[in-house]
Amino acid sequence: MTDRLVSKVLVLDNHPEHQDAIKRFCDEHGLVPLKVRKNRLMSVLRSNIDLGAIMYADDYGASAEENAEIALRIHTVRPELPIILRRETVATLDDVNESLRRVFCAAYTASDMSSLSKVIDEYIFSLVYPNALVRGISEITESVLASQFKNLTTRWDTPYIVRDRVIFGEVFSLIPLESAWCRGYMMLQTEEQPILESLDAYSPREGGASFRAVNNLLGEVTNLIWGAFKNRYVGDAANASSSQIQVPLIINHKHRYISFGTENPQLCFLYTLTDENTGNTIRLYQRFIFNLSWSPEDFKEIVNLSWSSRASSNCSNPLLKDD
To answer: Residue 46 — pLDDT band, cuts 50, 70, 90?
Structure first.
């Protein structure tokens, strides 16, 4: 696994002469550019949970009116995503219509992308995640998933940064993380049906597995990851932050939306568990949201500790949500 974090950005720019420059910039700055047809844009925005930002051309629409209309619709559907405007001549928003100026976070030109670099650092890669933490989370989670899904093959993508707040699947768990260097949550999100199919295939029971079995399994996975994380990175709870600051979590089931009360981007991991015999696939999204406190300069990995063997003895109660 590479130590470099990436972020997926939606590129809404149809100019062939700028494609190479944009692709080169993305490659150099840890961005994964995604394209979508205009007629599918809104459906993708309502369902995609992987995005860090949107790169938008000032002539993406067929006319100035359509361009403004599309930008406003994007902002309405996904207000948490920064929209960066590519302009032809000036890298500012000063002369953009006032009604549109609030939609965009910044502007750049294809001829000089230095301003774009600053925007990416400010809006996407604004938090520093120690390499040891990123690697360790993947190791811990892979070990736990292998122990709980013995008949499935676990694979994971390069960890990435997201800003969106769309919930994936029907069930997710939340568990607090608290230490001297961080306070926030770990969230796991997945779909119910693929897990039911796996349970029925390898742990058959009369009447088939129920949603409660899925909840129990996700709760166990959450507890085991949390326990290993605590042993490896937190240690003595007495050293944890004494701050009692809290913010409300907002969950809107109708719109599959969750907010942790912060604009900070989130650290995301995607794990894919595959049944090589049937092709059945389970996708598990893991997010770390350090919305209450984040001090990476105080991070330290606890050495000479058999965290993996002690993980199961350090259980908390995750908050499970089933839509």
So the answer is: confident
How many domains, the chain? Answer: 2
User: Does position 305 have pLDDT exceeding 50, yes or no?
Assistant: no
Model's pTM, two decimal places? 0.84
What type of residue is 186? M
The last residue of a domain, from among 75, 107, 123: 123
Is the confidence at residue 70, as pLDDT, over 80?
yes
Contact criterion met (CB below 8 Å) for 182 and 288: no
In this structure, which amino acid lies at residue 39? N
Q: Which residues contact 195 (CB under 8 A, 6 or more apart)?
A: 209, 214, 217, 218, 282
- Over residues 291-317, the mean pLDDT reads 67
Q: Which residues contact 275 (CB under 8 A, 6 or more apart)?
A: 151, 152, 153, 198, 201, 281
pLDDT tens digits, residue range 262-286? 888 999 999 999 999 989 999 999 9
What lies within 8 Å, CB to CB, of 317 at 6+ separation is 175
Structure tokens at 71: 């930008």
Boundary (domain end) residue, out of 83, 102, 123: 123
Domain containing residue 266: 131-322
